[in-house]
Amino acid sequence: MSGKLLGIAHPWGMTTTAEMIGVVGGGQLARMMVEAAAERQVAVAVQTGSTDDPACAGSSRQVIADPRDVAGTRQLMVGCQGITFENEWVNIDALIPLEKQGVRFRPALSALSPLVNKLSQRQLLSDLSIATPPWCPLSRISPAQPALPQGWSFPVMAKAAHGGYDGKGTVVVESIEDLARLIRSVESDEWLLECWVDYERELALVVSRDSQGRVRRFPLVETHQSQQVCDWVLAPAAVDQGVEAQAYNVAASLLTKLNYVGVLALEFFFGPDGLQVNEVAPRTHNSGHYSIEACSSSQFDQQVCIAAGLPVPSPEFTSNGALMVNLLGLETATTSLQQRLDALAALPDAHLHWYGKSPETPGRKLGHVTVLLSGADAKQREQQAQSALEVIRGIWPSPTVNSALS
C-alpha cells in the first residue's frame, strides 16, 4: 500500500497520510471495508477487541481495545486522515472531546447521535413527518395499570433503544400480562412499543452523502427475514418506481436534516399502509453486501472514499440483478465446513465471502454468497433467484425457517 505523505497538518499536532483511515470496530463490516480500501491503496487501522476479529486480516494496524474505549480511539486516530465506524455501538459522549480537538469522524457525532438510540431515532422521523409504525415509549405505560395506547391491540412489538440486532433486543408482547412482565423486567425509559405491522414486503435502501452534500443511492432491494435474522436479499426489488422514489426522498430528507456524511441504510415495511421506516442504520448494512459484485462502487467503497476524503464515485448497478444469501452457523451439519465452502465457491456466477470467524456458532453470521442474475425482467430474476437459493440452501441449510422467495 502507498505510504505517500501529503503533509496534512491536524489540530492535534500530527502530520498524517491521506491514505490511512481508522475504523472503530473489527467485525465483518470492517473486514469488507478493509478489502475495499485495498483496491484504492488506502491503508486501514482498526480498533477491535481481539486480534482474531475478522477485520484484523488485511488491516495495516490494529488497536486492540473495545470499540467503546475512548483511549483506544485516541490510539487509533494517530496517522489517520479520518475515522469511521463499523456499527453504532459507540460511546458518543466520550468521543466528543476528540472531535473538538479536530478528529474527523465520518459520520460526525452530531449526525450519529440521534440515530444510535431507537427512541430518539423514532422521534426524529416523527419530527420530519416520515412514516413509521405507530409507536410510543414504554415509559408512558403505567406500571400500576398497564394498558396499550388507545386504538392499539395485541400483539405489539417491544424494542430496546440500544444494542438490538438480528432479533436481539426485541420482544413480542401478546397480552396485558406480558406487558406487565416486560415493564417489571426492563428499564422502561430504554424501550419502546410498536404496533404490529401487516406488510407485504420488507425493503431496504443504502445511500451515501459526501462532504459536499451530494447524495448517491443504491437500488432499492427486497429483504427476507427468518426469525428476525436476514436470510436473503434480492436486488433490485420488484416494486413500482414510485415506491423507490419515495424511499429515496425519505433517505435524502434524513441525510440533509442531519448534515450526515457517510453511508446510511434504511429498512422499510411496505404494505397496505404504504412505505414505513422500520429502522435506520448509520453505517454499511447487510442488505447492501450484493453491491460488492453488482455495482461499480460498493457500499464499502463509498465509505472508504468518504472517510479518506477521496472523490466519491456514483454506484452504478452493473448487473441485471443479484441475490445475496447469508451463511449462518449450523448446530449440526452432514458435511464438513470445507466441503460446504468448496461447493459454494464452485457455483456459476456465485461469489463467496467468508468472514474468518471461529467457531461455527449456531446462528452466527459467518459469510455470504452473492449470485449475479441475468434475467431481463423482475419475473425472470425472481425465478433465477429462487433456483439459486434452493441450490445454496442444499449446500448450506438455513438454521431458520421458510427461506423461499414467496
UniProtKB/TrEMBL annotation:
For this UniProt entry, the molecular function terms from Gene Ontology, in alphabetical order, are: 5-(carboxyamino)imidazole ribonucleotide synthase activity; ATP binding; metal ion binding; phosphoribosylaminoimidazole carboxylase activity
Keyword line: ATP-binding, Ligase, Lyase, Nucleotide-binding, Purine biosynthesis
Single GO BP term: 'de novo' IMP biosynthetic process
Q: Which GO cellular component terms are attached?
A: cytosol
Ligand binding (ATP): K118, K159, E194, C195, W196, V197, E202, N278, E279
Enzyme Commission designation: 6.3.4.18
Q: Which InterPro entries match?
A: ATP-grasp, ATP-grasp_carboxylate-amine, ATP_grasp_subdomain_1, PreATP-grasp_dom_sf, PurK, PurK_C, PurT/PurK_preATP-grasp, Rudment_hybrid_motif
One Pfam family in the UniProt entry:
ATP-grasp
Spell out the subunit comment.
Answer: Homodimer.
Q: HAMAP family, from UniProt? A: PurK
Q: What is this protein called?
A: N5-carboxyaminoimidazole ribonucleotide synthase
The protein's gene is named purK
